[in-house]
Amino acid sequence: MTDAWWAPYLFIALAGWIATDIWRWLGVVAGNKLKEESEALHWVRAVATALVMAVTAKLIVFPTGALSHSPMELRIGATVIGFIAFLASGQRVIVGVIVPIVLLALGLMLFG
């Protein structure tokens, strides 16, 4: 082993890269063999969507950082209005992202 200051950082970077990259490559290989409308791909999309929604809900209900000082009503209201704007815009993701951010920023400026 070496006593160089950078050795632990190199180890962490390599170990992290190997641990995640293997699964990415396996996903690419497996994904190329799946049909677009297969039951397995529908399941993968459902699980991925559920994970994203769980993280989003956690950030809304148990926020950290600047959001932790905002009222729960503001966070939920921005989310609901953002979702409505997302649907009204023909499910454009950019609208569903920008509208709640703007509402949160305005709410924090006015009530924060």
TrEMBL record:
Spans traversing the lipid bilayer: 6-26, 46-66, 72-88, 93-111
Assigned keywords, A-Z: Membrane, Transmembrane, Transmembrane helix
Pfam families (UniProt xref): AzlD
Domain of life: Bacteria
UniProt entry tagged with the keyword Transmembrane: yes
Protein name per Swiss-Prot or TrEMBL: AzlD domain-containing protein
